[in-house]
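Quick one, T. Sequence first:
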Amino acid sequence: MGELSASILAADLLNLERDIELAIKSGVTWIHLDIMDGHFVPNLTMGIPFGEAIKKRFSVKVESHMMVDNPDVLLDQYCSFSQLVTIHYEAPVQTFRVLKEIEKRGSMPGLAINPKTQLSNIEALLPYVRYVLVMTVEPGFSGQGMIEEAADKIPLLVDYRRRENLDFLIGVDGGIKRENISRIAKMGPDIIVSASAIFRGSIEENVKSLKSCMKENENGH
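Structure tokens:
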């Protein structure tokens, strides 16, 4: 069964410690930080102090999802608290160079692709990444509906990974909720990111329900 990652973009920022603690106790194994700069995406969100505080307070894996124009500028700080640093293929940077810089700093280099980006665009980079994040919404805001056809890239990546004998992880992010998580889990991702479906309402019940739906796939139901 894949791991469940909680995007704290949908958490109560005035009770962030409480919400993260509840998510971890309920079975979430990753905390997903959506880093937005107001340029690459039309939103501005959390930065370095959030990640540093999470590392100080919790023993949990952290992914910094860099939805920014210049992810290379603050790599030292982000890599200091992130097991995984994910940049966007669509960002105006030298992607290969930034991926190598992330790896040099001890974090796993990840590559995110927007819904309209084709897998053929990133094929040459796949031997050099440890993680591919398939976006199933346009990045920028929590609570959007899933773009169903974007999820079709997941099984294609699973097949490509096996065929080429590569070992990158596969993640999916965007519009994941109880109604569709079982279908998504069947496609074979290693990490499933969810935001509002975790943090709106009872966090414990939400995580329990999501993980139960993910487990249905494992049991072949």
